[in-house]
Design brief:
Blueprint lengths: L1 E3 H6 L1 H7 L5 E5 L2 E6 L4 H10 L9 H10 L2
Parallel strand pairs: 1-2
Antiparallel strand pairs: 2-3
């Protein structure tokens, strides 16, 4: 989403909340000058990529023991 700097200033809270789910580009004089992103997005993407790697019938403790025994 691209917004103007004035729009951002007028609705700061709205766009800070929105930046939790998507990138917000802020333009000034018709040119994008700022990209507002979620600080934790890399962590969320990493966790999503791991989803499903461990079967549903194994407990967290069993998975941990298996991982440690392979070291």
């Amino acid at each position: 989403m691209t917004i103007t700097a004035t729009e951002f200033k007028l609705n700061l809270g709205k766009y800070l909340s929105l930046a939790e789910t998507e990138d917000v580009f802020i333009s000034r004089n018709g040119k994008v000058s700022v990209k507002l992103v979620n600080n934790n997005q890399d962590k969320v993407d990493a966790m999503k990529s791991l989803f499903g790697c461990i079967s549903a019938d194994i407990t967290l403790e069993e998975a941990r023991e298996e991982r440690l025994s392979s070291i």
